[in-house]
């Protein structure tokens, strides 16, 4: 029986089947922590070292479980620290509930200690942001916050003053607020387009001679349906990075990723198709879509506001991808002309050979592709891969190969650095029996590397690969290739990540010789607990796009001419890569 307002809140979370909270304690949430302590048999607290890690871990938990995730932070600065991770959840459509403390209810707005109006601060990131006003208000607020987060696949926020947390559970209730009027149930929206819309979409697909499929994260549960559609249409499957696990990377119908991190065959498909079906994707980079007017387009999305957002579509189909595709498939005629698909497959075969060559080079300094490529030998069939943001994202996108029931995610639209380790914590907490791998650069990892101690504390067997080039590599190459400027402000002070791992109580390995990579990975992955593998790589290896544009080549040349330091090494590396590609 609830004794305090905090007890009511925690018990309502339990009613919603919440069993995990990612949190860092503080005096603004001591009442909530006491309630969590007394309910610890039903709900656990994962203590992190920074509130941003709590929000990012919750985002990762939501991505991999497809369930509501919860994070908790104290008033003032604690709440503010959550924001970056919460924006990541908002931008990637993940249901996350953030709970924050507040100062004393009768001192709010009087410039008291940590008196930050968090319900206003969170009003942009959260679709629901409310302040609990007393015991009779808790269930109403929690229920609406949870329902909003789940139904809209977004962030909700509740803040509760520190003194109200300790108020007795039995309190005054207004006449209008009927007891138990709010329920802890939600019904998922499962809309289906009408028959006429489905027939229009099928007619366009049947008329097309070069059909392409762009399959995003909305298709992660629709693998069978996407493959059946591709088989019927002879359509290559192009995968935005959040949809990397929609089909295995060795599937004969996929050309791999799209965009700067994608493959040349995928870009060829987008440039040549006459019909495009965008399924469960809001891939933001418009320049990689077919030119407007080039292709007839059908889009499937659960959010009607997303229809036509990235490309002018002819037919919009609102609903879950698997449901819509099942309704659409019987209306689609099988195509006998497979030339478009076969041409894409030939190009993909050549691309795979190139990636194999780049991933098995024996150069010293070691190429970063080598460590990403070798990871495939130690990954389990159901591994969860959490990739950070930077040049590492390119190497993961092109060289880590999805197979079986693997899961993969990155910070998609926000593209925040430092997500890799917290995502891995969220994944490992959710799936204690599965292999979880964090693939990060030295820049992103150092931002929240204190949470390696979290992995050690909870004995999470995460394997963390840190690509060490002592540089903010992606920013460096953007300065050179996109802006035509010499690099500036991107060099990093070197860190001994093996020493750091050991200081935290984890195991550490370092490898810089390609000949030792596979042996090192095998040894590291055999360890039962958290491990850091420091991979020292060539800082001059550029993450070039699958297809380099004339403008990018010109900006690169301009940066070299304007005094880019180490330009001889950079030019040498780029020329060597191109020569190998031709040979």
How is this structure best described in words?
With 583 residues, this protein is an alpha/beta fold. The protein folds into three domains: 5-165, Rossmann fold (3-Layer(aba) Sandwich), CATH 3.40.50; 195-346, Rossmann fold, CATH 3.40.50; 360-582, Thiamin diphosphate (ThDP)-binding fold, Pyr/PP domains (Rossmann fold, 3-Layer(aba) Sandwich), CATH 3.40.50. 39% of the residues lie in helices and 15% in strands. The chain contains 22 helices and 18 strands. It has helices spanning 5-15, 30-38, 51-65, 77-91, 118-121, 138-152, 162-165, 195-207, 223-233, 264-272, 321-328, 339-359, 368-375, 391-399, 420-430, 442-447, 452-457, 473-481, 497-504, 517-525, 550-561, 567-582; strands spanning 20-23, 44-47, 69-73, 96-102, 128-131, 155-161, 211-215, 237-239, 254-257, 275-279, 296-301, 315-318, 384-387, 407-409, 436-441, 463-468, 507-511, 531-536. The chain has a six-stranded parallel β-sheet, sandwiched between helices. A six-stranded parallel β-sheet has the order 9-8-7-10-11-12, sandwiched between helices. Strands 14-13-15-16-18-17 form a six-stranded parallel β-sheet, with helices on both faces. α4 (77-91) links the parallel β3 and β4. α3 (51-65) packs across α15 (420-430) and α12 (339-359) crosses α13. The longest helix has 21 residues, at 339-359. The radius of gyration is 25 Å and the shape is globular. The termini are far apart. Mean pLDDT is 92; it is low at 578-583.
């Amino acid at each position: 029986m609830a004794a305090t307002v905090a007890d009511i809140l925690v018990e309502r979370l339990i009613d919603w089947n919440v069993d995990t909270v990612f949190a860092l304690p503080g005096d603004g949430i001591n009442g909530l922590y006491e309630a969590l302590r007394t309910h610890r048999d039903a709900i656990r607290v994962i203590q992190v070292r920074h509130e941003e890690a709590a929000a990012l871990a919750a985002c990762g938990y939501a991505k991999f479980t497809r369930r509501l995730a919860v994070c908790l932070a104290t008033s003032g600065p604690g709440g503010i620290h959550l924001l970056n991770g919460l924006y990541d959840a908002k931008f990637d459509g993940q249901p996350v509930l953030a709970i924050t403390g507040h100062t004393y209810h009768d001192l709010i707005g009087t410039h008291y200690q940590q008196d930050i109006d968090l319900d206003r601060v969170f009003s942009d990131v959260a679709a629901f942001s409310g302040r609990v006003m007393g015991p009779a208000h808790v269930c109403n607020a929690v229920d609406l916050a949870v329902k909003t987060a789940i139904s809209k696949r977004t962030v909700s926020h509740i803040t509760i003053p520190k003194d109200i947390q300790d108020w007795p559970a039995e309190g005054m209730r207004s006449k209008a607020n009927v007891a138990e009027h709010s329920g802890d149930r939600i019904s998922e929206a499962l809309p289906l387009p009408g028959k006429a819309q489905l027939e229009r979409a099928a007619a366009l697909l049947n008329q097309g001679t070069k059909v392409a499929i762009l399959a995003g994260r909305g298709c992660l549960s629709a693998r069978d349906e996407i493959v059946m559609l591709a088989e019927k249409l002879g359509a290559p499957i192009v995968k935005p990075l959040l949809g990397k696990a929609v089909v295995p990377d060795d599937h004969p119908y996929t050309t791999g990723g799209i965009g700067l991190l994608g493959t040349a065959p995928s870009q060829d498909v987008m440039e040549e198709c006459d019909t495009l079906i965008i399924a469960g994707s809001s891939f933001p980079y418009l320049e990689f879509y077919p030119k407007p007017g080039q292709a007839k387009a059908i889009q499937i999305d659960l959010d009607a506001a997303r229809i036509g957002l990235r490309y002018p579509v002819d037919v919009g189909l609102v609903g879950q991808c698997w449901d819509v595709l099942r309704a659409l498939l019987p209306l689609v005629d099988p195509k006998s002309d497979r030339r478009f698909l076969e041409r894409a497959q030939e190009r993909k075969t050549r691309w795979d050979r190139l990636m194999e060559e780049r991933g098995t080079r024996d150069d010293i300094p070691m190429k970063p592709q080598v460590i990403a490529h070798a990871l495939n030998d130690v990954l389990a069939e159901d591994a969860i891969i959490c990739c950070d943001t930077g040049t590492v994202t390119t190497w993961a996108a092109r060289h880590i190969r999805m197979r079986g029931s693997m899961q993969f995610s990155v910070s998609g639209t926000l593209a925040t650095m430092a997500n890799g380790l917290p995502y891995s914590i969220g994944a490992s907490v959710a799936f204690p029996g599965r292999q979880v791998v964090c693939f990060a650069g030295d820049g992103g990892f150092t931002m929240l590397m204190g949470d390696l101690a979290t992995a050690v504390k909870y004995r999470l067997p995460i394997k963390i690969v840190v690509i060490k080039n002592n540089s903010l590599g992606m920013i460096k190459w953007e300065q050179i290739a996109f802006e035509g400027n010499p690099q500036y402000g991107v060099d990093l002070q070197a860190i001994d990540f093996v020493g750091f791992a050991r200081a935290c109580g984890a195991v550490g390995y370092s490898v810089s010789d390609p000949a030792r990579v596979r042996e090192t990975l095998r040894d590291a992955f055999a360890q039962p607990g958290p491990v850091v593998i420091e991979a020292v790589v060539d800082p001059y290896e550029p993450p070039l796009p699958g297809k380099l544009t004339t403008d990018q080549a010109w900006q690169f040349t301009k940066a070299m001419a304007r005094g880019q330091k180490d330009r001889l090494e950079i030019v040498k590396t780029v020329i060597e890569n191109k020569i190998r590609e031709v040979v």
